[in-house]
Structure to design on (142 residues):
């Protein structure tokens, strides 16, 4: 298409060109081959535009059907996950394989609602009276 023209405008221009060429055919003996090729392309363009419109409608219909299938699929996925959770139990670690978080024990909380932690013992610089060496971390036996 020419820049700035819509498809409909260009088709109008092409139809006008075709009509003018037919009206002046006796004066344009050398244009007959070009006119025949142009008319052939014009028909192909019109057929392709009709196909494009059909495909646009099909795409829109397909999009709507896909949306409905996705809603149905989500519902069925939740139902399947519920059945799996019911059969395996809510605490089973196998639930992870089904993209379901198993129930696990929570870490304890203190009265103020923060997780319980033990503060590190105060250490004084070595050489001060009452200095305590920092605790050595040990790993539990496996």
């Amino acid at each position: 298409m020419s820049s700035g023209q819509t498809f409909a405008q260009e088709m109008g221009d092409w139809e006008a060109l075709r009509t003018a060429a037919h009206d002046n055919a006796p004066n344009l003996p050398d244009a007959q081959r070009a006119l025949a090729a142009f008319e052939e392309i014009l028909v192909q363009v019109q057929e392709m535009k009709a196909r494009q419109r059909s495909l646009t409608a099909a795409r829109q219909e397909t999009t709507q059907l896909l949306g409905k299938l996705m809603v149905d699929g989500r519902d069925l996925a939740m139902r399947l996950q519920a059945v799996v959770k019911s059969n395996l139990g809510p605490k089973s670690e196998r639930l992870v394989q089904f993209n379901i978080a198993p129930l696990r024990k929570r870490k304890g909380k203190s009265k103020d609602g923060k997780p319980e932690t033990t503060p590190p013992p105060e250490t004084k610089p070595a050489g001060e009276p009452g200095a305590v060496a920092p605790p050595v971390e040990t790993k539990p036996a496996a």
